[in-house]
Design goal:
Distance between the termini: 145 Å
Oligomer: single chain
Strand content: 15-25%
Helix content: 10-25%
Shape: globular
Radius of gyration: 28 Å
Number of strands: 17
């Protein structure tokens, strides 16, 4: 056997080992919508909806395997399919293969997704454990981080320690996530009254949970009239217009949208808009809260539009006649055309309003701008003491004779 043939065989074996290192390789949902093993499964509606949206995947043999435990690598891929987070630049994990092919693509099907989950999923000692079956508490932790779910809108939070007979076996790092998910009925306990935090979760179970959290998905460009939605909505497509829509929940604008425009026409979002992608245009629309986390985001709107709380974490430009009740500034590259009702410099030292820079000393304790003739942004604080002198003058008047 020639040396060339031996080398080729060795390369093929290495590639095969590398590809199989993360278990069976799922295919993209669009390649296999007719899954053969879910017709009688209780999670079929959720699996079908998420598979059609491209969020969850089947296997090359046409199966979905809904009752099989899902691996941590598969959890990472499913969440990345939804959010398209930017992968970390560094190779953090010792047990993940980072080899690339000649085109610069990672050989392992889950590597890029795992890199994107470095701040979303738990891990220990630089080991991601991609082949390990995901536990229920690990999935709860990952979901809450990925969807950025918070408890501030929940009046009464359930305590998992009291809800389940084994509640105190839930790891401390996962407890808040479990509490939130069971309070919102996104995640349930076992029929025997336990939560089983270190127990494994199946692919069907996770599909059902994700479908409850992401109630609707917009995966095509163009006009969408959703009417009234009681749940969360995910937008993954560019150039979308939401018209005549009320969302009683959160709206996720994923990174895959890029810098295309997302239009709101007579729309109302009662939860939080998480803007990881897209420029936002509001017409006769209202948003309760928005978190901008993409550099270069533009937001504009007419005078009939409003944002109650705008948390601007990256370089953002806000213009038009849109009304903002409270702007929380977490980037020094924020530019506003008009002054909001209240300004909070949280993790920034300056803000540009109407082409003028304002610093902490230029903002009152009530969050209003001090618009004097001069801006002493780079000067030390100047305190001027005004003293008013009262002078009493005595006048002598001669009496008349």
């Amino acid at each position: 056997m020639s040396k060339i043939i031996k080398r080729r065989i060795a390369e093929c074996l290495a590639l095969s080992i590398s590809l199989s290192a993360l278990g069976p390789i799922p295919i993209h949902a669009s390649e296999n919508l007719n899954l053969t093993d879910i017709s009688q499964h209780w999670a079929k509606p959720s699996i079908t909806a998420l598979n059609k949206a491209g969020f969850v995947t089947g296997y090359a043999d046409g199966t979905f395997r809904p009752d099989a435990n899902i691996s941590r690598a598969e959890v990472a891929v499913w969440l990345q399919n939804i959010f398209n987070f930017t992968p970390a630049n560094e190779e953090l994990f010792d047990d993940v293969t980072y080899r690339k092919d000649d085109s610069g693509t990672y050989v392992n099907w889950a590597t890029e997704s795992i890199m994107a989950m470095s701040e979303i999923m738990n891990y220990q000692n630089h080991n991601f454990r991609p082949n390990a079956s995901a536990t229920r508490e690990e999935v709860a932790y990952a979901i809450v981080n990925a969807f950025n779910l918070k408890e501030h809108n929940i009046r009464v939070m359930k305590n998992s320690y009291n809800e389940f007979s084994d509640g105190r076996t839930i790891s401390s790092w996962a407890k808040n996530a479990v509490d939130l998910l069971i309070t919102e009925d996104y995640l349930m306990g076992r029929p025997d009254g336990t939560f089983d935090p270190q127990g494994y979760i199946t692919r069907g179970e996770l599909a059902s949970i994700l479908n409850r959290i992401a109630d609707q998905a917009v995966t095509t460009s163009g006009l969408h009239i959703l009417n009234e939605v009681y749940g969360n909505v995910v937008i993954t497509a560019p150039n979308v217009t939401l018209k005549n829509t009320i969302i009683h929940g959160n709206l996720y604008l994923t990174a895959g949208i890029g810098d295309s425009e997302i239009n709101f026409d007579n729309a109302e979002i009662t939860g939080t808009v998480f803007a990881h992608g897209g420029d936002i245009h509001l017409q006769n629309s209202s948003i309760q809260s928005i978190i901008v986390d993409r550099d270069g985001t533009d937001i504009d709107g007419d005078y009939k539009s409003s944002i109650a709380i705008a948390d601007l974490r990256t370089a953002t430009k806000v213009f038009g006649s849109i009304n903002i009740d409270q702007a929380v500034i977490n980037s020094n590259e924020v530019k506003l055309e008009y002054e909001p009702t209240k300004i909070i410099l949280e993790d920034a030292f300056k803000l540009n309003v109407a082409n003028r820079d304002y610093y902490e000393q230029d903002i009152t304790s009530f969050g209003h701008l001090i618009k004097g003739e001069y801006n002493y942004a780079s000067e030390p604080e100047i305190i001027t003491e005004v003293v008013t002198e009262v002078i009493t003058e005595y006048v002598y008047v001669e009496p008349e004779s």
